[in-house]
Hints:
Elements: E1 3-5, H1 8-31, H2 36-51, H3 59-81, E2 86-88, E3 93-95, H4 98-102, H5 115-118, E4 127-129, H6 131-149, H7 157-165, H8 172-196, H9 202-207, H10 214-218, E5 238-239, E6 242-246, H11 262-270
Parallel strand pairs: 1-3
Antiparallel strand pairs: 2-4, 5-6
Helix pairs in contact: 2-3
Amino acid sequence: MTLYTTDYLEYYLTLVSWIIYNGIWAVLIASGVFAIPFLAIIIQEWLRARAEGADEGNKGTLSAARIENRVFVAIAVIMFAGIPFIDVDFNQLQFDRTRSAQCQVNVPLPTETGWSQSFSTLNNQSARVPVWLFFMHAISRAITGASVAAIPCGTDLRQIRIEVDATRIDDPVLAQEVSDFTHDCYGPARARLFMNRPDLSDEETYDVTWIGSRYFLDTPGFYDTYRAKRREKVGLTTAPAMPGWPKCPAGRATPRVGSGGPMATGCMRACSARSIPAC
């Protein structure tokens, strides 16, 4: 028999939980606590028979039959939902990535995560599962899997945004020059925008959230006003009164040799020839 899991943490914790359950069950058996429900059944039925009137007939026979019926039910519950019967170890656990593959989501295998080392002490250990609980696990996983499969595959926009935010420029020179441009041009331009508070459309409001904003490039008083604060001798167009300090929209159409290659070219194209000196 196989237990299916769809999460690498669930894959390990399923076996851990049943190992712990086996330990608790052993304690209940050794201490005799499992017999307390049977004692409670006998006392309840005895008190119930005493509370009934004399017209009920032979109270002893009646209470004995009631106790017998309830004890049989309790025994059945303990046998199927209490006593561990079915062996479970990592060989019986299967990690299912079918739905993840259909949605083109790469879910790591349990052996590819840090949990593999954390639970290495479980090697060669197994546990036993009660029949009813094993059946309920299989049914619940089947229903959950069917419910998840009914959800259409879609683009995880939140994850994409997190990955984009975490993206960094590998070229240290280009990264520094992007940082300089942000500090010398983009930051002051956004500060002026907030002070002026112009009426922007939804598209323009979104456009000014990145350094290659067409609004800042095309609107007088923003990128055409500021210039680099660090002297650059790379042949950029400069203001007559400020030689060597290029204005923010100034830049070359082709990247400087050794300044990042395709990355710099893409930077120039994306930023519409704005003044990142390396571009």
